[in-house]
Design brief:
heterodimer, A: mainly alpha, two-stranded antiparallel ribbon, 45% helix, B: alpha/beta, Amidase signature (AS) enzymes, 11-stranded mixed β-sheet, globular
């Protein structure tokens, strides 16, 4: 039962990922692909993925600015990158830069635990306190 | 005596010869800060009490290291045990790191004295310090203008004699661009040369810590202190650090300089170009040769950067969730609410913008078109540098397209702000080192010359930069404050 439940969730999630314009559905997808423009709903959806709350004004502003910025960065699509491998980090590529050694995965005692806990916005009994995670309906 | 006007190596010499005491030096520096900080706003916090205590210890016990007793300002994204480290962000207000960054440990082992934490664009995202949640730092050469960014507080502090030295961090130009705007020397070392352990991460494949100083000698001496392999940073390179002091010789005979036409053409102001051409002629006079070259991939550099850096940032900044440290929203009915509101209230506009760009570029359906494509173009940019540096010893260009711009001028137009880093960004993408040194003035504002070199060859940069400094002395000029 759990398994079927999870697979249903993952279907919903993958569908959501296909819907950059949220409730506007397919018409919004077509709109996005043909004009490469970003709607306010796309900003809203992306911000939610990043767990970032935005005001209505911010959503409108960022939609406009993102269109400008992505319009500008689109120039990279004219670069010929056939048979070119990606560079994730210059330390990982070959030649003289191959000098990042492996080290033993040994744990080291850190004696500043109190200093860490003291930074917590809310702490209780040497632990980080968070709001309840389970919803009411599941309790 | 105006001790604060001196360079770090001059101060160290006076301390060693007992011409001045360290307590006297630190007191003089804080008097200078008291006198000009109201106009400049370079610092987020000052640590006078601990600085004086350390100075007293050194006066009693002597000065062992080359820079012992010399005060230094630290960018406020470098963790300092027990001293608030904010990244100039509301989300990290009141954060007290439980440990020191490796560079801070190394400075303390040398006997150097941290005097305060300097202002920056929030999480080092910006080119003017206007994105700081707390204050905008002013350019000491014209307080109507920005000091550059994101290490604007560090650059302004050095230019205004509020600190002989400072550390900054450079992800797309954040050391070199403010160094250029403020008329000081700024070095972005090779990626992997200086440990980033304890540097609060922005874009991890690009970030690098480096010095901002009054001259090239100080830059080399500070690199002797901070350039060390560190097992706690998995990108730290296990290579021998040479003694950079040995590179401080005036000799550029036979040096081959490449000048990319992409960084000397459209978009670069005439007076900036003129100052750089004059510098090239000075090198020619000293026995070097220069030749125009083309690095065609440069036209993609800014775009590549504005996909890769926000993508990495969106991942790095996911840790600010209101649980472990920093700000947590009062509005928190459930966990999702806490995340959304904490981040909404804690981050400023530029950081939000980049989190959204980065999340978008990494999200399903766009990953290949943006992120993967950008990483491939990054390879092209690196290849262009490698090819050029096979035939030439160094590459030179203006550090910035223009001198310092006015406060408020670009703040509402993110793209025009991004363009001020057009000459510095390619270097971070390729991972190579580059230094910015003063090379003239345009209507009273400093112009910077950028010198780029091969990976792990900071020695050549120091020799080439030092030679020019000996010949011209632009770095001796001071702003009237």
């Amino acid at each position: 039962m759990y398994r079927s439940c999870f697979s249903r969730i993952s279907v919903v999630i993958s569908l959501l990922q296909l819907l950059p314009a949220g409730r506007h559905g397919f018409s919004a997808i077509l709109y996005n692909v043909s004009t490469m423009s970003i709607s306010k709903e796309t900003v809203e959806y992306t911000a939610k993925l990043a767990r970032l709350g935005l005001s209505e004004e911010e959503k409108t502003l960022y939609a406009k600015q993102l269109n400008d910025i992505l319009g500008y960065v689109d120039v990279i699509n004219s670069a010929d990158t056939q048979n070119i491998s990606p560079t994730a980090s210059t330390r990982l590529s070959g030649g003289k830069q191959k000098m990042t050694p492996m080290r033993q995965d040994k744990s080291v005692q850190f004696d500043g635990i109190k200093k860490i806990i003291d930074n917590a916005p809310i702490q209780e009994d040497n632990m980080f306190r968070v709001p309840k995670i389970m919803g009411d309906e599941e309790q | 005596m105006s001790l604060h006007r001196l360079t770090a190596h001059e101060l160290a010499e006076k301390l060693r010869s007992k011409e001045v005491g360290c307590v006297e030096l630190i007191n003089d520096l804080y008097s200078r800060i008291d006198a000009v900080e109201g106009k400049i706003s370079a610092f987020n916090c000052l640590t006078k009490e601990t600085a004086l205590k350390k100075a007293k210890e050194l006066d009693d016990n002597g000065f062992n290291g080359e820079l012992s007793g010399v005060p230094i300002a630290l960018k406020d994204n470098i963790c300092t045990d027990g001293v608030e480290t904010t990244c100039s962000s509301k989300i990290l207000k009141d954060f007290i790191p439980p440990y020191n960054a490796t560079v801070v440990e190394l400075l303390q082992n040398e006997g150097m004295i941290p005097v305060g934490k300097t202002n920056l664009d929030e999480f080092a995202m910006g080119s003017s310090t206007e994105n700081s949640a707390f204050k905008t730092t002013k350019n000491p050469w014209d307080t109507q203008r920005v000091p550059g960014g994101s290490s604007g507080g560090s650059a302004a502090a050095v230019a205004a004699d509020e600190a002989p030295l400072a550390l900054g961090s450079d992800t797309g130009g954040s050391i070199r661009q403010p160094a250029s705007f403020c008329g000081v020397v700024g070095l972005k070392p090779t990626y992997g040369r200086v440990s980033r352990y304890g540097l609060i991460a922005f874009a991890s494949s690009l970030d690098q810590i480096g010095p901002l100083t009054k001259d090239v000698t100080d830059s080399a001496l500070l690199m002797n202190v901070i350039a060390k392999y560190d097992r706690r940073d998995s990108t730290s390179a296990d290579v021998k650090t040479p003694d950079y002091k040995k590179s401080l010789v005036k000799d550029v005979k036979g040096l081959k300089i490449a000048v990319p036409k992409e960084l000397m053409g459209e978009g670069i102001e005439e007076n900036t170009k003129k100052a750089v051409l004059e510098a090239l002629k000075t090198y020619e006079k000293m026995g070097a040769t220069f030749k125009e070259v083309s690095l065609p991939s440069f036209k993609y550099a800014l775009s590549t950067y504005y996909i890769i850096a926000p993508a990495e940032a969106s991942s790095n900044l996911s840790r600010y969730d209101g649980v472990h440290y920093g700000h947590r929203s009062e509005k928190q009915n459930d966990l999702m609410d806490m995340y959304l509101n904490t981040r909404k209230e804690g981050f400023g506009p530029e950081v939000k913008r980049r989190i959204i760009i980065g999340t978008y570029a990494l999200s399903s359906g766009y990953y290949d078109a943006y992120y993967l494509k950008a990483q491939k173009v990054r390879t092209l940019i690196k290849q262009d540098f490698d090819d050029t540096l096979k035939d030439f010893d160094v590459i030179m260009s203006p550090t910035t397209p223009s001198p310092a711009f006015k406060i408020g001028e670009k703040v509402s137009d993110p793209l025009s702000m991004y363009l001020s880093d057009i000459a510095t960004i390619p270097i971070n993408l390729a991972g190579i080192p580059a230094i910015s040194i003063p090379c003239g003035f345009d209507n009273g504002l400093p112009v910077g010359l950028q010198i780029m070199g091969k990976a792990f060859d900071e020695e050549t940069l120091f020799r080439v930069a030092f030679s020019y400094e000996q010949e011209t002395k632009w770095n001796k000029r001071k702003p009237a404050l």
